[in-house]
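REQUEST ID: PR-0412
SUBMITTED BY: lab tech R.K.
PRIORITY: routine
TASK: structure prediction, single protein chain
INPUT:
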Amino acid sequence: MKKMGMLYRFLLAVSLSASVAQASDIQKEIDAEASLAMKPVSAKPVAQGELIHIAPVGGITFAKFKGETSPGYSFTTATGYEGGVGILVGRGKLQFETGVMYAERSSREEYRMGVQTWDLTYQNKYIELPIMVRYNVVNNKDLRLYARAGAVASMLQDSTGTMSNMQNYNANMVAPGIYNPYTPYYGYGVAGYNSNLIQDNNTKSAFSSVDFRYAVGLGGQVRITKMFAILLEGDYQTSVNNVSNSQPNGYIGSTAMNLQMETYGIRAGVMISL
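STATUS: complete
OUTPUT:
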């Protein structure tokens, strides 16, 4: 019995020692977890998109003149081209857009009055400075769909007017020597056409040097890499004021009109995020 008592006391001592050691380990784990929980956790910075974006673009234009014309005159749409670099500033849904563009905006003039007819195709070339606000209706890292609105200041660089379909069936009916106010040769025919347009088709003086236009547009942008995206957009522009108060007459002098430009454009390009 004495041996059994000693064995019992030995086992009890071993059990108490193991319990104390286990309790000590558990307390250490609790203390470590509490210490870790009390440490401030620093939030990872949220990645933001780039602030500045550059967009080389190019496309096609459709333009015509509208407004108060004289009897016999009408204007139809002609095509041109445009190209340049856009600059986009901003990260969120609202962005600011500017840049510089070179654009040819053409229109076709037709005159039909009895037997007198001619066509005059204008090719007006402008350096254009847009000032636009862009709102991204859909705005995520892969896709943007947006609307644009603002104004465009267009500085006229050159204008050419090419005559065609010139007809005057009275040429053989009016004998030389009979007065005709349209020609110094007193007769209709080739000599009666506007010599300035025949010999030099420079029509820059017929248009304002600056054309301010309202502009609206829609577009979309698909991201290819973090730095590059492709875009496709279209816009509509119309003159704030008259771009021409008179047009060359197909025979001599000019004809008073009040014209504004109405133009559309479709362009594509690459958006480069700096």
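NOTES: Residues 41-47, 169-181, 183-191 have pLDDT under 50 and may be disordered.
REVIEWED BY: pending
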